[in-house]
Design brief:
globular, alpha+beta, about 100 residues, 5-stranded mixed β-sheet
């Protein structure tokens, strides 16, 4: 299961969806795509707005600076994760 924790100014994504075999898991691919696309968009707008780290089965985003656009991108990312959670309850869980 992928566990996504949204707390204060930190978003942590841990684990694997285990929906399908490694390399064929559409849920893992979706979570990764949503996270990386959102991170890249924020960095393009303001490279100092976030710090992030990633490793196998782990992404952490620390928000250092808020703005209207950055907050919309973060809200959109979380909204997309919630949509995945509603469709794949056994594979994605969000903790707020």
């Amino acid at each position: 299961m992928i566990k996504i924790t949204v707390k204060d100014d930190t978003i942590t994504i841990k684990g694997h969806a285990e929906f399908n075999d490694y390399g064929k898991d559409i849920v893992c691919a979706s979570v990764s795509s949503i996270a990386i696309t959102s991170i890249n968009a924020i960095i393009r707008i303001d490279k100092d707005a976030i710090d992030y780290s990633q490793d196998e089965g782990f992404i952490e985003v620390k928000i250092k600076r808020h703005s209207e656009v950055i907050d919309v991108l973060l809200e959109n990312m979380i909204s997309l994760f919630k949509e995945l959670e509603s469709q794949y309850k056994n594979n994605v869980k969000i903790y707020e």
